[in-house]
Amino acid sequence: MTEISFVRDRFLTAEKPPVSESTALGWIHRNLFASWTDGALTLIAIAAIVYFLPPAIDWLFLSAVWSGPDRSVCLTVDQGGLLPSGWSGACWAYVNDRFIQFMFGSYPRDQLWRPLLVVAMFVALLIPMLLPKVPRKGLNAILLLIAFPIVAYVLLLGGYFGLSHVETPLWGGLMVTLILSFVGIAISLPAGILLALGRRSKMPIVRTFAITFIELIRGVPLITVLFMASVLLPLFLQPGNNIDKFLRALIGVSIFASAYMAEVIRGGLQAIPKGQYEAADALGLNYFQKMTFVVLPQAIKLVIPGIVNTFIGMFKDTSLVTIISMYDLLGIVKASFGDSGWITPVTPLTGLIFAGFVFWLFCFGMSRYSAFVERRLDTSHTR
Amino acid sequence: MPRRFRKTPTPGKQQNDNEQRLLNMAKTIVAALVGAAVMGIGASAAQADTLSDVKAKGFVQCGVNGSNLAGFGAQDSAGNWAGLDIDLCKAVAAAIFGDATKVKYTPLSAKDRFPALQSGEIDMLARNTTWSTSRDSQLGFDFRAVTYYDGQGFMVKKELGVKSALELNGASVCVQSGTTTELNLADYFRSHNMEFKPVVFEAQDEADAAYNAGRCDAYTTDASGLYSIRLKMTNPDDHMVLPEIISKEPLGAAVRQNDSKWLDVVSWSHYALVAAEEFGITQANVEEMKKSDNPDIKRFLGEEADSTIGADLGLPSDWAVQIIKAVGNYGESFERNVGQGSPLKIDRGLNALWNKGGLQYAPPIR
């Protein structure tokens, strides 16, 4: 009988991983040139980047004018300026010159510390609110959603504690965009939850009210709501008794966002299996307990993308207030094109790129945070 | 009516009565609402005395161009307003308070401007608004002083070699849609038996860009606008504004009607600017001119002892002096905002004084 048992007494030396798995070349092969179609698409994409990116970088940064007192620094010699003929580039000097106006509108320049203080308070309250590790969320929420708006109102509008009164027509720029969005978000989420619950309520009056409100508001364009509030309402009021235009826009934006938010949340409520409701009932929870402890936490978690989508949409929709002569960021940028001190062929494009970039910053920030919250609340129901 | 005095009603009659009562109630409510609205308007019309209101609140609320029309009403980076329309607001404030800073500006869009004036949100509208019959009558405003005589014109590339709008036969013309500009354009070409190709755009920015990119031979809008659009062209010197003006656009200040005292103050503030230019009074020499021997000038500047011009307007006797100190005379204001002292470089043209071939004419101040 021959001995056939075999015991390995030493390990094989490790082979190098195959080229296709380890090296940069392998990565490129796997991800960019795995098939003929992939290869073609990669080449087209590279060609597009090579074609568009350098001119864009050149226009935005290298050829751009960064500082200067007036339009002559952004004009070529033929146009009556200082630059060589044929020049084209971004005129950041104009954004630089107008920056305070783009941020705060016509807010009195000697009072700028007031909006700046409000921004500082907002950041100081918002960041601990957003970071899950920071304790005392309840106190933080009360400060952010109840105390902060009151303090901000007093600080911005003034008229109390020796602060000079700054009327809302002087407000403008990013400040208006942010106030409209913050108030819209802060009101629309709770109002939307109430409306969504109302719509699914068994009480006929509550249900009818919720359905009427939602369908009426959703059936009308925001422009119409703003127009009604700004143009028609004053004609019915006694001269001098005008409700502040800014307040009217705030109310318009808030009720509009609430109606959309209600439908998003209703989507979440309907996705909760009936068993959850019945289980809560079986435990003897009342309606309030059932909703706050069982249904809403699950429902809202499901529709976070929808909620953030509505927030982002509303943030951008605030630009519509321009048509009722209130100047948000986009409105004030566009209005500045008419300033004869800065009229040049490149001014409008530069201004719009700046406004677009600021909008993008905020929307991208909201979108990233929502992705983070989704991951954090994920309890692996993913299918 | 108490029920017991009624004949016993049949059930059908009863129902009719009920319906009738409901109908009457509805009518009453509607009538009350309409009545309240009408009374609101009526009350404001009856007691309209904007001058006293303005004096009481201590500032003039002036409706201006929110989309910033270069040279007429625009905000600089520090947030200060400047322009020809703005100067009228300042002149009115200077006349009333002796202080041109007592103005609050309400930036308005083209759609918003009329309701803002009707509702009393603003005291006067100085937003490059064309004086027309329907605005004067149907909208319930009053116009009088014309601060700028505008009209629709054409801009072409110099290389076309066109010297007159009558040579534009067959040209493609960039124009903004839905404006009177578009209608005027069609009328003009038809009445001169010329062909043209309209290239129509929704927004003015698009039309500017298209003309700049060479998509059409000519561009048409109000002449004052053409000059500011020319500054946005890649090579402003390649373009010229043709001499023909094909429509009348007298731009002036509007106030609510049935308020003559206020209309007087606003229009005579403008006339004071024009008269000052005619007399040769400038921002710099106004103090000297007070000592002038010319009785017209002395009366105008409130230096004649028995003159009551200021008091009759409801203004201080040195109202004209304050206006000129604040904004200069009409010529100075024009050159600073839209003329040679500004990037627009618009010629005086129709806006020269009447004795220099223009239309700016102030009635005698005496």
Describe the fold and architecture.
The complex is a heterodimer of chains A (383) and B (366). By secondary structure, chain A is an all-alpha fold. Chain A has two domains: 67 residues, no CATH class; 209 residues, Orthogonal Bundle (MetI-like fold). Chain A is built from 15 helices and no strands. The mean pLDDT of chain A is 86. With 366 residues, chain B is of the alpha/beta class. Chain B has three domains: 44 residues; 209 residues, Periplasmic binding protein-like II (D-Maltodextrin-Binding Protein, domain 2), CATH 3.40.190.10; 90 residues, D-Maltodextrin-Binding Protein, domain 2. Helix content of chain B is 41%, strand content 18%. Chain B has 14 helices and twelve strands. In chain B, helix 6 links the parallel strand 8 and strand 9. The longest helix of chain B is centred in the first third of the chain and has 36 residues. Classes of the chains: A mainly alpha (383), B alpha/beta (366). Chains A and B meet through helix 4 and helix 9 of A and helix 1, strand 2, strand 4 and helix 4 of B.
Index terms:
heterodimer; A: 383 residues; mainly alpha; MetI-like fold; 2 domains; 15 helices; 0% strand; flat; B: 366 residues; alpha/beta; D-Maltodextrin-Binding Protein, domain 2; five-stranded mixed β-sheet; 41% helix; Bact_solute-bind_prot3 (chain B); signal (chain B)
Radius of gyration of chain B: 26 Å
Any idea of the CATH class of the largest domain in chain A? Mainly Alpha
Number of helices of chain A: 15
Secondary structure: number of strands of chain A: 0
Binned strand content of chain A: under 5%
CATH topology tier name of the largest domain in chain A: MetI-like fold
Question: Structural class of the helix and strand makeup of chain B?
Answer: alpha/beta
**pLDDT under 50 segments of chain B (min length 5)?**
1-16, 30-46
- Helix content percent band of chain B: 40-55%
Q: Could you name the CATH homologous superfamily of the largest domain in chain A?
A: MetI-like
Unreliable spans of chain A are none
